[in-house]
């Protein structure tokens, strides 16, 4: 049980060997599915001591490039209930750890779904995540990435976005895109994810922020990703705590069962405690999920 802890200590010592992060505009020119609106984005420390960014209308991708890339890449979607993004707690801190193992990481600051700056807010985050995969894949050679080893990782509502990307890649969220670059991730990691928007196990706050207060049944099913897994969905890695009262562990279980039923390779790690939003370290256990994730990625 001590080996993952030693591994993380080594990561922290080596963080300084990675290159400085660089923020990249997600789109060249106009942002699709957007209304003209003043940029109201703000970042502040929330009640849990997490840097939280709200009112994002201009999405971006921040690149964390390791000095010795191993060819693997991960796009991280921080959580925040579709009301904002925890870009350090569930973004930069994870990126720095993964960098030390040679993984090239991109933290996605996707649009906060809001009718003030989105024509259709329900598809704006998915548009941004698909564009992030497109952008990374097209620049794979530049960043020394294998174009067939580009994954996506999501926390909480960011996990809903990552699972949406992993199950809706055959249909571009932006129907006007002519670029044929594949937006299918090669693997997906879901950390205490929102998966479902159903009444029984779904996270109602995320559902309301993305779809509004009164979504119809078809919308709920379309965005309940346990129903959208197919045999073509990418391999999945899941982490959840059984005592999570914010996003029920049944979300991860439902996605895992869907993967099994469609023959999709999946690995799941369930902790008895830890609650929701623990980020890099679950304080109730000596086990460290980032080490398990790296082992899983290296076996793909």
Structure, described:
The chain is α/β, with parallel strands linked by helices. The protein has one domain: 3-Layer(aba) Sandwich (Rossmann fold). The protein contains eight helices and ten strands. Strands 1-4-6-5-7-8-9-10 form an eight-stranded mixed sheet, sandwiched between helices. It has a two-stranded antiparallel ribbon with strand order 2-3. Helix 3 crosses helix 4. It is globular. Mean pLDDT is 92; it is low at 1-17.
Mind telling me the CATH class? Alpha Beta
Give the biggest sheet.
8 strands, mixed
Strand order within the widest sheet?
1-4-6-5-7-8-9-10
How many beta-strand elements?
10
CATH architecture annotation name: 3-Layer(aba) Sandwich
Helical fraction: 25-40%
User: Going by CATH, what is the homologous superfamily?
Assistant: Alpha/Beta hydrolase fold, catalytic domain
General form: globular
Q: End-to-end distance, in Å? A: 23 Å
Annotated CATH topology = Rossmann fold
Summed up, the domain count is 1
Average pLDDT figure = 92
**Residue share in β-strands:** 15-25%
Low-pLDDT windows of residues: 1-17
Gyration radius over CA: 18 Å
- What structural class do the secondary elements suggest? alpha/beta
Give the helices and strands as they follow along the chain: HEEEEEHEHEHEHHEHEH
Assembly type of the chains comes to single chain
Number of helices: 8
């Amino acid at each position: 049980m001590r080996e993952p802890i030693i591994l993380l200590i080594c990561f922290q010592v080596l963080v300084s060997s990675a290159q400085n992060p660089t923020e990249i505009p997600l789109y060249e020119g106009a942002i699709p599915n957007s209304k003209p609106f003043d940029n109201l984005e703000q970042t502040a420390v929330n009640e849990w001591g997490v840097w939280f960014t709200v009112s994002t209308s201009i999405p971006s991708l921040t690149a964390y490039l390791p000095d010795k890339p191993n060819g693997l890449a991960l796009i991280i979607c921080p959580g925040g209930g579709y009301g904002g993004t925890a870009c350090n707690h569930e973004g930069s801190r994870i990126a720095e750890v993964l960098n030390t193992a040679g993984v090239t990481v991109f933290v996605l600051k996707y649009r906060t779904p809001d009718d003030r700056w989105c024509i259709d807010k329900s598809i704006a985050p998915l548009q941004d995540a698909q564009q992030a995969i497109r952008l990374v894949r097209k620049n794979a050679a530049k960043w020394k990435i294998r174009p067939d080893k580009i994954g996506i990782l999501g926390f909480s509502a960011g996990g809903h976005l990552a699972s949406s990307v992993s199950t809706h890649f055959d249909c571009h969220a932006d129907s006007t895109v002519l670029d044929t670059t594949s937006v299918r991730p090669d693997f997906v990691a879901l950390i205490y994810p929102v998966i479902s928007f159903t009444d029984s196990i779904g996270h109602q706050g995320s559902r309301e922020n993305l779809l509004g207060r009164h979504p119809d049944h078809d919308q709920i099913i379309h965005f309940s990703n346990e129903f959208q897994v197919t045999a073509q969905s990418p391999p999945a890695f899941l982490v959840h705590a059984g005592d999570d009262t914010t996003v029920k562990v049944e979300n991860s279980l439902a996605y895992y069962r869907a993967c099994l039923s469609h023959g999709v390779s999946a690995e799941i790690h369930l902790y008895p405690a830890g609650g929701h939003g623990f980020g890099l370290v679950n304080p109730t256990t000596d086990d460290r999920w980032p080490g398990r994730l790296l082992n899983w990625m290296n076996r793909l």
